[in-house]
Task: structure prediction
Amino acid sequence: MRVEIIIDLIEHIKKEVDSKRIVSKFDALLELLAMSSNADEKWLANEIEKTKNELIVDLVRIAPPDKSYSKIEVINKIDKIGVVGSRGAQNLASCLIGSNINSPSISKRVKELQNGIVTLSNYDTNTLGLFLENDFSIKGKSLIILIFDGNAKINTVYGIELITKIWNDIINSYSSLVGYSGSEPLLFHVDKSTMIIELPEGDNVIQSISYCLGNFVGTYEKILRIKKLQLEVHGLNLGGDIFFSLESELQGTIEKTIHKIATDLKNLHNISNNGGENIFTSICRSLGHILDFINRGGKIECIAASASKDILNNNILLFETCKLVDQIDIVSKSLECSRVNG
Result:
């Protein structure tokens, strides 16, 4: 899987670098910087700013359109100095902050970023492809990828056993919802950081799970706002009543989210009130398990055997959700410290 992702990412980067003429734009920027050492013209500063901004936009767009943690993890390893995507854009922008743009050290740093782009563009994926036969391919499979980050990390056999049981129950719930009658979930890959579960011909199950994941982002935006309000309330010594009222709002937000998504799924799949109560309860319980995994820092990615824009968009939304969870964790720790010290 990892070799396959590396090849796909490098080929994507090579294509984008070539189509956007990024190396040539770096050359133009370096020429302008060289000229600035002998001139102090306003037009030159404006031209440097314009070229820099164009490059920043291009570097952001080099990043794969389908944001997912499995790809972000790989791209951060092959792009060690940070020349691709938002990292590359931030690094270029930081090079050219301030008025001393004619400093040799700035040109040197810009050249290093250009060299990083050239290195990735010249990577020989044909050689890398020789290792594919020893790798496991994810193409044409219906998969759920679990990434054990943060407090969701697993270090024991019992931990693996527990997460496997929980996700087996989750998949069974969604299988009942969509009427899936395929094979039992298969353990496609597992190590200390990742578990991949395969559902043979299970795109309809994957689609439903992905639908839920894509609907979490709004909830976590609200949770972050409530957490920030709690921090502000505590800092202003406005009293415990307001703080605990916000705590109730927090719990209510999660419960409302679970109930709404389960109801929407029930309606989408035409599950009757009489026959669908057990499925509804099961989905609610499954959503609670998924939210707990995400709250502890775990990451989830859905992959369909057939290309799906909906799943791609939901993976992007889940990526944003996970970033919100990180922000919530930071605010929660600040709130805890504030309460302990104050």
